Amino acid sequence: MDNLLVQLPALIGVTLGVIGTLATTMVTDAARWRRERFYDACLQYTRALRRYSQLIAGMTAGHRPGATTPPVDLDAGLARLTGEEIDRAVTDAWEELCLLADADTVDAARRMRVAAHRLEVFARAGDDAEFDLDGWDGQALLLRRARDDFYAAARSRMGVRRLSTSSSLIHRDGGSGSRRR
After folding, report:
1. Which residues span the membrane (predicted)?
2. Which of 95, 110, 117, 167 is 20 to 30 Å apart from 89, CA to CA?
3. How far is it, in rounded angstroms, from Cα 98 to Cα 152?
């Protein structure tokens, strides 16, 4: 009995250590899981919206001198826009993002989607209408800035510093007049 009383503090210490380690591991793993799910949701959303906006840019490439987007036939592009594939991809990504993201990230994602949708109006105008290049450039700039804002909100949520430049591959400052790097 004396041996048990002597060893009891050590047993209690080991037990508390195991419980503490398990609790810490559970909290850390849960935080890591949430962070990874959030990252995946952001990535899925930006990829879906990029495919959507690239299709629109391709449909209007023939109207935009110096466009770097490969042209997409208007009828084929309209069929893809009308089909469920792109809309479902964007909507599914949006739903997942709404479940995992904070309000700032969701608001920034919404602004990015609205800006991309406004570009669709230019693509749906067709070949018969006169293309408003200035209107396109202005709306494309809003989309790039909305994407930068989305990235900033997502990076902030993940504890990553903000980018000091535009996230655009072809525009240095995100401005409509900037040139390909």
Report:
1. 6-27
2. 167
3. 17
pLDDT above 70 coverage of the chain, percent: 89
* pTM for this prediction: 0.77
- Is residue 86 within 8 A of residue 105, CB to CB? The reply is no
Each residue of 144-171: pLDDT tens digit?
999 999 999 999 998 888 777 666 665 6
Q: Which positions ≥6 away from 90 have C-beta within 8 Å?
A: 45, 48, 49, 52, 113
Q: What is the pLDDT of residues 33-43, one digit of tens each?
A: 988 999 999 99
Residue type, 7: Q
For 39-60, letters b (16+ CB in 10 Å) and e give: eebbebbbebbeebbebbbbbb
Residue 175 DSSP SS3? coil
SS (H, E, C) 121-173: HHHHCCCCCCCCHHHHHHHHHHHHHHHHHHHHHHHHHHCCCCCCCCCCCCCCC
Going by C-alpha positions, the residue among 124, 36, 122 that lies closest to residue 80 is: 124
